């Protein structure tokens, strides 16, 4: 029962977090574009594409997580997305690039603090993914298998 409550809290937390992060980026789109550009990993057309699409994707992902629809799949997607963000931040930090995190608005440089915070968020997403898949597998194992009916001969 405790695991179910923790899974529920993780789902609501990540869902609200993604909605908030997307909203903040939509509120100041040019500042977020500057944050994406500060990583120095994309050409200018890629920066614009990411800056325009990512906030909407985060809001949609947050809403789906809040609703709990197809949870194992969207929890997996959130884990992959946070893992990707964490890897980009770690690469930028290790290269000495003065990148701006851009996670919750502009102005927070990538630092050990932001890396620890995003690692913790990644851990929550991994927890949600593992336990949502476990619950799904448990439910599918509890369902009875359909009875086999032999094919009927053609008349």
Question: What structural keywords apply?
Answer:
155 residues, mainly alpha, two-stranded antiparallel ribbon, 5 helices, 2 strands, 5% strand
Structure in words:
- The protein has five helices and two strands.
- The chain is mainly alpha-helical and 155 residues long.
- It has one domain (2-140).
- A two-stranded antiparallel sheet has the order 1-2.
- A hairpin with a 2-residue loop joins β1 (100-102) and β2.
- The N and C termini lie far apart (55 Å).
- The model has no long low-confidence stretch (mean pLDDT 93).
Can you lay out the helices and strands and say which pair or pack?
Layout lengths: L1 H26 L1 H9 L6 H24 L3 H25 L4 E3 L2 E5 L2 H31 L13
Antiparallel strand pairs: 1-2
Helix pairs in contact: 1-3, 1-5, 2-3, 4-5
Sheet with the most strands, sense and barrel status: 2 strands, antiparallel
Q: What is the strand arrangement across the widest sheet?
A: 1-2
**What is the H/E string?**
HHHHEEH
Q: Domains counted in the coordinates: how many?
A: 1
What overall geometry do the principal axes of the alpha carbons give?
elongated
Low-confidence region ranges? none
| Separate helix tally | 5
Give the radius of gyration.
20 Å
Please report the distance between the alpha carbons of the first and last residues.
55 Å
Outline of the structure:
This protein is mainly alpha-helical. The protein has five helices and two strands.
